């Protein structure tokens, strides 16, 4: 008798959530105890912003996707229990944002995410 395969991370759900600007779809990809570290100009590597659990991550996603901007999944690579993706965004005034995320997966869900982002100033 073989063992059941571990659920795979769903790239198309990630695309639908990002490009459809749907925080609920995106939140479904996270484990209940997920942790997200955000590094950017204001939360630098030595003091990243750290979000713990789906509630905190969900509030951040709600904020981001309530803004007047578009999102595009540029690439996504999945290998075993790790994944990485690039996302490009543009505000209605033309300001662009680029983010890169590295993911640790558990049971097909995001357990840890490190997001590095930069935007036009």
TrEMBL record:
Signal peptide: none annotated. SUPFAM superfamilies: NTF2-like. Residues 17-112 form the SnoaL-like domain. This is Nuclear transport factor 2 family protein.
């Amino acid at each position: 008798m073989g063992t059941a395969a571990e659920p795979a991370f769903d790239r198309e759900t990630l695309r639908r959530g990002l490009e459809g600007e749907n925080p609920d779809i995106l939140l479904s990809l996270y484990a209940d105890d997920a942790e997200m570290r955000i590094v950017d100009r204001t939360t630098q590597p030595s003091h990243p912003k750290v979000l713990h659990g789906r509630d905190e991550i969900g509030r951040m996603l709600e904020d981001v996707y309530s803004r007047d901007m578009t999102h595009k999944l540029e690439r996504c690579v999945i290998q075993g229990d790790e994944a990485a993706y690039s996302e490009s965004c543009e505000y209605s005034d033309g300001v662009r944002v680029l983010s890169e995320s590295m993911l640790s997966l558990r049971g097909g869900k995001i357990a840890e995410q490190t997001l590095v982002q930069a935007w036009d100033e």
